Amino acid sequence: MEQHIVESLNLDDYLFRSYSEGERVVTLYIGYYYTADKVGAAHSPLVCFPGQGWEISTPKAASVTTAGSRVSAEQIMIRKGQQRELILYWFQAYDRTSPGTLKQKLNNFWAKLRSKPEDNAFVRVSVTIQGNHVEDAAKSAETFIQAFYPAFFDYVTNQQSS
Question: Domain residues of the chain, as ranges?
Fold first, then answer.
């Protein structure tokens, strides 16, 4: 990402990468923060996408069950011209996920009470919607999260306090 974006988001670290299988492409973005002071530094896609000219659907709650965990997320569809994407996103505070920053703050406080690291993150999984195949895009996002999240969870929960 461009340096001014990294600075604007006050990121400590990030990952922005696309993965493909056949014609399906899944894009993963993780904005990572080392301290609780930065909880809320990441903002919801409901803020940034309209500012970039995207139309967004009404968010709906989403839940993805993975090996040993459940990811509580928000799902939206965005459109700009003919391009449409399905997005699942959540905020991570130690071992808990939430679709919004208020619950992220509560989860981070709970982690602190348990003497866990203050690391937190914003995670976004995007899949281009091809034709009218919204369900296919949603399934691709869910399958990706099921494969990706256990490794991410392990990374987040095994960090030493910063």
Answer: 3-157
Q: What residue ranges in 1-159 does DSSP mark as E strands?
A: 13-21, 24-33, 55-56, 60-66, 69-80, 83-93, 96-98, 120-128
Q: Are 118 and 108 in contact (CB under 8 A)?
A: yes
Calpha distance 93→15 (Å, rounded)? 17
User: Which of 43, 99, 34 lies closest to 70 in space, CA to CA?
Assistant: 99
Length of the chain: 162
Q: What are 91-148's pLDDT values in tens digits?
A: 888 777 877 666 656 656 656 655 666 778 899 999 999 888 999 999 999 999 999 9
Nearest-CA neighbor of 38 among 122, 157, 154, 143?
122
